[in-house]
User: Fold these one by one.
Assistant:
Number 1:
Amino acid sequence: MIHIIEVAICPVCTRSSIGGATHPGCRNKYTLDGLTSIFRYSGGIQRAIKHLKYRRMTDVISSLVNLTIAQLQNEKERYRYFYTFIQNEKPPIIPIPLHWWRERGRWFNQSELIGQEIAERLQLEFKPDILIRPKFKTPQAGLTRKDRLTNIKGSFTINSNEKLRMTSAILLVDDVWTTGATLREAANILKRAGVKRVWGFTVAR
Ligand SMILES: [Zn+2]
């Protein structure tokens, strides 16, 4: 079973919000401007995404993206704020990068593959090399493995400010929205680097 998300949420407080736009009262200079998530993270969608995390399955990615794009096109009214954002801003897509420690067990980033295909379908630029996760944020010595992972969590940096110079808006793409901490942190970093508008997009939530 595949379930469409009926009620969009504000990416800051996660309460319901029309079209996924951030509530005016939740907004500040560094918050996401809105969030669009298409499917509930359950059933077939959850299975497909879990498979993706451990295996490169390009046919699964194509199916997921096909379903996602079909839903976007079938219900344009539901996603009107999202369409307004991409039509007005023509934002490049930036995928959420993997943690360095996850890259060791896996050799690809499903958000990057999903983001790339969505970019092609929506005819947006794809910029996977701007947002990165540096290997070491603070000295790791002396920390347990668990503390190390916590310490690294959410630590993004901008790879090249030069590449961001001409970019006023970004569509940030991830496979799943869970707590939202990752997308909020990425938006924060991008806005501090001068990006004016950032919208989040996930296949599932
Ligand atoms: Zn809110």
Number 2:
Amino acid sequence: MKTVYTDNNATTKVADEVIEEMLPYFGELYGNPSSMHTFGGQVDAKIVEARQRVADLINADPEEIIFTSCGTESDNSAIYAAIKAYPEKKHIITSNVEHPAINNLYKQLQGQQGYEVTFVPVDEKGRLDLDLLYKSMSGNTAIISLMWANNETGVVFPIEEIARKANEKGILFHTDAVQAAGKVDIDVKKINVGMLSMSGHKIHAPKGIGVLYVKKGFKFSPFLVGGHQEKGRRGGTENTVSIIGLGKACQLAKETLPVMNTIVRELRDYLQNELLEKIPGSSVNGDLEQRLPNTVSIGFDAVEGESILLLLDKEDICASSGSACTSGSLEPSHVLMAMKVPFKSAHGSIRFSLSHYNTKQEMDHIIATLVPAIEKLRAMSPFWKDGKMI
Ligand SMILES: Cc1ncc(COP(=O)(O)O)c(C=O)c1O
């Protein structure tokens, strides 16, 4: 059997249609879109089309789309634009389960520039403490930045409600929709969000291309200062080929959204339910309802995630664990720790993130591999005895 790829929240296969769309622009159509000649103009016209396709995915206007180099740059640009727009406001709100693209920037701002940052906690299912979030909003808040969906657990925050509250208080709201794009319906006009980040490589476009949506009317200061590209909002010659690929990927993502919410969701649920039934001492991390259709994070008591991944890898199955190896010790992820997942199952947590390329046969291969793998590891584990964790 060929590689079973269930690590789509890490990155995705570039769709064949996307590669096809990009190929001419690697070759004969290499002009600079800013050039005055017709040769460059052909590339510019294709970028105009790509911008429209990206805008269509989230119901934005094309001039509200800024192309960046990745989701991280989009996130950083949004935060810096907010603090430049409101220099007198020294308070920022976020959650304690954000991606490092947000988290680490806030820690830096907190340390170096005297910002007070409220890291709103989550409960044991990864749901945001909305009471605390709303109480934290004040006239001194420069920006609220919250992820639409969590990369590890797939838990989805109630972005529409939060955006409404932020708007009522006149606070700028940014959402990191890197994991949500292409998996949930996004309508920026309906939710009235100020800024929104996306990343190409999570939706079957190449790595190294991102998007920042900036609502019309917001005084946006560029993060990368340079030429007139992107209407002066992001300097640097455009990554033309990837932008063209991203445009195609967004068009495809819009078409495959119904598949995500039916076939992919059913495959995910099948995998999840079979594993829970066949493996005692296993449980899902995160809310079962408010969750991306493609993601499941399962904790297996008394085993180590890295050992599970190695056994899966031997069978050509790609997934990821909820741990990060830091300074010689294996720390469970900050997301699972924030959810207060017990240490011994947080350590044995595996995330499967599917795409529409996955099949039921592949899910059966994972189940057939994982059930004996966990039994084997538990036979050696000092924390597992007589069919339960000790
Ligand atoms: C929620 C979230 N935000 C931001 C990023 C960063 O995106 P990029 O890899 O394009 O910089 C990721 C990547 O995994 C992510 O999952």
